[in-house]
Amino acid sequence: MGSFSIWHWLVVLLVILLLFGGGKISGLMGDLAKGIKSFKANIKEDENDASMEAQAPATPPAGNIPGPQQGTTAAAQPQPQPGNRPAA
């Protein structure tokens, strides 16, 4: 009495089919299959991308952006001298 027999499961399946209908269940199974296929395809693409990155030669970037110039500042401000302090 602790486990269900095949007849119990068939009655449960019949009730589910009556509640949801055969078309809705087959549509859900089709959507599930599409999701699994899409997942597998994306996993293969990620593996291909990773192998391409490992095989790609290390080349420098195409453009050059100059860095800040030495000796020039945006606004020349006088620096305070250590001996010249204003009176407080």
Automatic annotation (TrEMBL):
<keyword id="KW-1133">Transmembrane helix</keyword>
<comment type="subunit">
    <text>The Tat system comprises two distinct complexes: a TatABC complex, containing multiple copies of TatA, TatB and TatC subunits, and a separate TatA complex, containing only TatA subunits. Substrates initially bind to the TatABC complex, which probably triggers association of the separate TatA complex to form the active translocon.</text>
</comment>
<feature type="compositionally biased region" description="Pro residues">
    <location>
        <begin position="79"/>
        <end position="88"/>
    </location>
</feature>
<comment type="function">
    <text>Part of the twin-arginine translocation (Tat) system that transports large folded proteins containing a characteristic twin-arginine motif in their signal peptide across membranes. TatA could form the protein-conducting channel of the Tat system.</text>
</comment>
<dbReference type="InterPro" id="IPR006312">
    <property type="entry name" value="TatA/E"/>
</dbReference>
<dbReference type="InterPro" id="IPR003369">
    <property type="entry name" value="TatA/B/E"/>
</dbReference>
<comment type="similarity">
    <text>Belongs to the TatA/E family.</text>
</comment>
<keyword id="KW-0653">Protein transport</keyword>
<feature type="compositionally biased region" description="Low complexity">
    <location>
        <begin position="66"/>
        <end position="78"/>
    </location>
</feature>
<keyword id="KW-1003">Cell membrane</keyword>
<dbReference type="GO" id="GO:0033281">
    <property type="term" value="C:TAT protein transport complex"/>
</dbReference>
<keyword id="KW-0813">Transport</keyword>
<dbReference type="Pfam" id="PF02416">
    <property type="entry name" value="TatA_B_E"/>
</dbReference>
<feature type="region of interest" description="Disordered">
    <location>
        <begin position="47"/>
        <end position="88"/>
    </location>
</feature>
<protein>
    <recommendedName>
        <fullName>Sec-independent protein translocase protein TatA</fullName>
    </recommendedName>
</protein>
<feature type="transmembrane region" description="Helical">
    <location>
        <begin position="6"/>
        <end position="30"/>
    </location>
</feature>
<keyword id="KW-0472">Membrane</keyword>
<keyword id="KW-0811">Translocation</keyword>
<dbReference type="GO" id="GO:0008320">
    <property type="term" value="F:protein transmembrane transporter activity"/>
</dbReference>
<keyword id="KW-0812">Transmembrane</keyword>
<dbReference type="GO" id="GO:0043953">
    <property type="term" value="P:protein transport by the Tat complex"/>
</dbReference>
